Amino acid sequence: MTFFFQKLPDGRERFDGVTLGDKFAAWFYGYVAVGPCRYFYDYDSLACLFKTAGFSVVERKEYRQSRLDHIELIDNRPDQMFFWRRLNEYSWQTPVC
User: Fold this and answer.
1) Is residue 27 within a helix (H) or strand (E), and if so which, with residue range?
2) Which of 17, 44, 58, 96 has minimal CB crowding within 10 Å?
3) Is-above-0.70 flag for pTM?
């Protein structure tokens, strides 16, 4: 894991990005998107994007764990989906990811 967080001799990050997912995409795709948009999202990179967009509560949940009643009606593909829900008022605070 330390590979993706290496520093260059001048102190800059070797790979661009805030999260491991960002750094992996920078390494794997060579910093240039060609053709259809491709990206490696992990929980940390999505949480950072949601927080930056103003979501003040971002929670990681396991399959069929939710604050919603009857989650089994929509959370029915354990290997294919993730869901996000807005729980509170929009916030314009800039997070530190």
Assistant:
1) helix 20-29
2) 96
3) no
